[in-house]
Design the sequence.
């Protein structure tokens, strides 16, 4: 079968993309039931922060190893097993009676989630030509934000209808079915092996890693992603819904709608940032503007002591999402800065920065909330001081983008 001319490639694309949609929704869906988990399991905000962080911690740690494994053995096995592990983890989460079971479930979900992006990109490269690939990768990136969107109002309504345990169980079961579907589409129908051993000689992996971690540009892009991705994903996935319910007396669905605004912003921000960078024929200047906006947006929460007017609050969530959508510029800069042979590792390194931030923010935020709940202060003060964390993180992102050296036509353009 000639993959790049076969009509079956669209079946492959649709199947993988639907799986990615469901898997990405489970990154932030637990944030909808934060208060219920605290009540049902009698755990502290710190524990909830750790629970929210553990999936991102596993995801972060496996990004570079997954890229190496996928390159050597092909994407089929890792996509199939990744969907299965994510589904199993979600089912176990829905059945857990002890907090240790919840942690185990999120670890499984994180392992499964870590497989999807790298292998999805490889699948697209195998089944689509260069022109189609450049168009479809943008659609694929937007699917992640759509997954976050599914985990707001739609999933909140599903939880209210079935209860949180049944809602998560049904989603996990659907992901397990996706694993079977991926096997049929990628292996059975195409008569391809589950493992494809690539015996081509490669440069020593450790040598490439040493070059990346000693490269200033790599660290600048690491900080870019750290300041932009983690502040959004980490907050949305853990404290956004409880924040709306606590500080504004919103219902779960109303708080979910607030988060939805940010996701709509992210869907708009991704193509807008790409179009603007292409139009201006530069990456650094528009990306600096994005990072300034994200710093000012988080600082606005401090200016109003964690309780801005409702109209401003909705605008802030939208703008923060809009800025988050521009994070694809990090990888545009990676492609511009590193040779093809190193772009995978460089992308993994930058992506690690974003999800390291997503690991740290919920945990630190939870500790701040616990401190004020246990002291004469109150939870409102906890949220106010908690917003110092995304402000500091986003400032690190701004420093990173300022340090980026942009190249055009092979010549460095480090000055803005």
Sequence:
């Amino acid at each position: 079968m000639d993959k790049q001319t076969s009509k079956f490639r669209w079946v492959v694309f649709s199947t993988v993309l639907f799986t990615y949609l469901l898997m990405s929704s489970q990154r932030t869906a637990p944030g909808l039931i934060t208060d219920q988990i605290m009540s049902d399991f009698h755990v502290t905000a710190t524990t909830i922060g750790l629970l929210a962080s553990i999936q991102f911690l596993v995801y972060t740690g496996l990004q570079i190893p997954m890229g190496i494994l996928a390159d050597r053995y092909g994407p089929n096995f890792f996509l199939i097993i990744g969907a299965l592990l994510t589904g199993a983890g979600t089912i176990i989460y829905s059945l857990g009676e002890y907090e240790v079971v919840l942690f185990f479930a999120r670890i499984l979900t994180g392992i499964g989630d870590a497989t999807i992006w790298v292998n999805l990109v490889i699948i697209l490269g195998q089944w689509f030509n260069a022109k189609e690939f450049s168009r479809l990768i943008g659609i694929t990136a937007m699917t992640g934000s759509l997954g976050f969107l599914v985990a707001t109002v739609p999933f909140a309504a599903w939880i209210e209808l079935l209860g949180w345990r049944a809602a998560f169980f049904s989603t996990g079961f659907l992901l397990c079915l996706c694993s079977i579907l991926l096997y049929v589409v990628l292996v059975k129908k195409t008569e391809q092996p589950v493992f494809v051993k690539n015996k081509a000689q490669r440069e020593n992996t450790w040598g490439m890693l040493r070059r990346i971690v000693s490269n200033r540009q790599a660290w600048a892009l690491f900080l870019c992603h750290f300041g932009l991705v983690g502040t959004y994903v980490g907050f949305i996935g853990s404290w956004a819904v409880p924040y709306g319910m606590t500080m504004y007396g919103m219902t779960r669905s109303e708080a979910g709608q607030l988060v939805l605004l940010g996701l709509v912003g992210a869907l708009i921000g991704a193509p807008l940032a790409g179009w603007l960078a292409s139009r201006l024929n530069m990456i650094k200047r528009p990306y600096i503007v994005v990072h300034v906006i994200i710093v000012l947006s988080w600082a606005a929460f401090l200016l109003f002591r964690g309780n801005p007017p409702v109209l401003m609050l909705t605008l802030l969530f939208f703008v923060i999402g809009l800025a988050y959508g521009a994070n694809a510029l990090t990888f545009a800069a990676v492609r511009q800065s590193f040779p093809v042979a190193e772009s995978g590792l460089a992308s993994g390194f930058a992506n690690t920065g974003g999800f390291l931030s997503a690991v740290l923010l919920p945990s630190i935020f939870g500790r701040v909330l616990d401190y004020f709940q246990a002291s004469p202060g109150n939870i409102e003060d906890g949220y106010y001081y908690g917003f110092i964390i995304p402000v500091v993180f986003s400032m690190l992102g701004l420093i990173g983008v300022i340090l980026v050296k942009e190249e055009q036509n092979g010549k460095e353009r480090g000055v803005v």
